Amino acid sequence: MERMSRTLLTAFLLSLSAMTIAWCQGDVKAAFEAANAAYSEGDYEAAISGYESILEERMHFESEYNLGNAYYKSGDWGPAILHYERAALLSPSNEDVRTNLVLANAQIKDRIESLPSNGITDIWERITAPGRFQLWARIMLFGWTLGFVALAWRLWAKGVENRRLLGSSAGVLLVMGLSSMLLTRTSAKRIESSKTAIVMAMESAVRNEPGYEGMTLFMLHEGTKVTVTDRSSAHWKIQLANGNTGWIAASDLTEI
Q1: Which backbone phi and psi does 123 adopt, to 5 degrees?
Q2: Which of 48, 68, 113, 194 meets the CB 3.0–4.6 Å disulfide criterion with 83?
Q3: By the 8 A CB rule, do 67 and 107 touch?
Q4: Are residues 152 and 216 in the same domain?
């Protein structure tokens, strides 16, 4: 009787969890469709509100991308670039995002030439992009699970050839699991520690020291992407793609 009660309780909890997940997904889908409808009708303010309500609750590539489109249509280049960049983190290989980023960056005032990049570093950053987190996590679980299954099977297998085959397969799968675990950890760290930001103010001074008393080195404008290298309470030290550095008011930046 006790065993039956536990079984029924487990079934109830699983059913409740499934219903909750389905309800949440349905709620997000309805909000997303409503925002899309507003966007199609040219009501970009309502569309922006709808997409942002979704992103307050979860990471959602389509909402980030469409939110960037809505801001672009409204002529708000800073927010448009911000959300295109966030969409690019979630889906690094998406050509539509890359194309729209080029179009949005063509609208901003600052033209900053990048220093020559390291090809290997660029490849590594694409492999470990935050958007790859779920992929590497799934491969990790797949590798570890099948690897240990193959090892267990090897203990019961008969014949030298079968044992050798299972042992080799287990080794490959466990190495795959270990490698993907490292990639998963790297992607997770990149999610947790943002190091890039977008200038959201129309114009912001970059100074040689934190605070408003320092000498102004140069000005930045809305939509410019920067790398954050240090932080104080109200000012962040930033570096541009061309290597220039300085301190800027934190309130003028939004992290990607």
Answers
A1: -65, -45
A2: 68
A3: no
A4: no
6 and 97 fall within a common domain: yes
One-letter amino acid for residue 165 of the chain: L
CA distance 50 to 30: 10
Query: d(Cα 8, Cα 6) in Å, to the nearest integer?
Result: 5
Task: Tell me the pLDDT tens digit for each residue of 9-68.
Answer: 344 334 434 334 444 455 788 899 999 999 999 999 999 999 999 998 888 899 999 999
Q: Among positive and negative, which fits the CA dihedral 72, 74, 80, 83?
A: negative
Please give the tally of structural domains in the chain.
3
Kindly state the DSSP code that residue 215 receives in the 8-state scheme: P
Looking at 105, 135, 153, the residue that finishes a domain is: 105
User: 132 in a domain, yes or no?
Assistant: yes
Is the same domain home to 76 and 151? Answer: no
What is the Cβ-side half-sphere exposure of residue 30, based on CA atoms within 13 angstroms?
6
98 and 9, same structural domain? yes
* pLDDT score of 9: 37
- DSSP assignment, residue 58? S
**Roughly what angle, to the nearest 10 degrees, separates helices 95-105 and 77-90?**
160
Could you tell me what percentage of the chain is helix, strand and coil, using 3-state DSSP and rounding each to the nearest 5? 65, 15, 25
